[in-house]
Amino acid sequence: MACTKYAACITNFGFVDKYPQLLHLLESQCNLITPDALQADSKLGVGVKVGFFHSPQSAKALTDYKEQQVLPDLELMVNLGVGTNHFPFEKMRELGIRCTNTPDVLSDSTADMGFALMLASGRRLKEGMDRLKAENNKELFGELFLGQDICYATVGIVGMGSIGYKFAQRAKAFNMKILYHNRSRRPEADETAVGATYFADMMEMLPLCDFVVIVCPLTPETENLFSKPQFNAMKNTAHIINIARGGIVDTGALYEALKSGDIAAAGLDVTQPEPLPHDHPLYQLDNAIIAPHWGTATIQTRTKMIQLMIDNGKAYSEGKPLLTEVKF
Hints:
By secondary structure, the chain is of the alpha/beta class.
């Protein structure tokens, strides 16, 4: 017997159109209603209780739809992603809307992205590729472009949640010395499993690190957590990797630290602002690798994320407990 589909408004999911298997996954389990369809026929929004979103713009669109009675019955906003800094919580509370996100299922791919950026930064892959494309590249084969080993290096992980711990597991396989800073200490068994040492004070940890990996959420407390004092505390041979949120790093201070040599390099999957303007000076630096927020951008992970979204919507439509509700 076929399962009963529920209706959901889907906003700003452009990537789905490029991958038929993802669109089929959604359409096979939900009756999707797009903003274009709502504009064509306002009656389609009546009775729709679930809205899918994955950006600040689409989150605002859903609350606007509710407020403007385009989606008068909207009760649940379902986010594709784990970060909640872009949720319009005050407006959602005012309108009586609950929400969910997609944690855990994206931890492996995001940790992979962090490790990829650390490897690329440590071994200067961007710089090497740029030099190879240059007309005079003979100097590449001298000692001028030596990188740094990742094996046996010391990594400091800022934020040891699910993604941070997955990163630590990968670092252990590379025989790295693992330090970490977190709001609360992990259980001793977790530390022992990966050989991690806890630092309650991040500033005590930073001078010891060859690589610093940012994996904490963006909150009022972590906004601009990394600025000039933190870069000054790091080794001038240290690399910083950010796979969390761009707002955790002061972009101007990072640029100055990279340009002056206060730190060696940066690997960024996230930036502030995002995306960076095409003429931003960070792009001109040899020692900055910038990716377009691709931490979860694999077919396998996006499939898991979308299925968790669908399952949350289904649970709500059936009056069951939400699987991954965000409390606010």
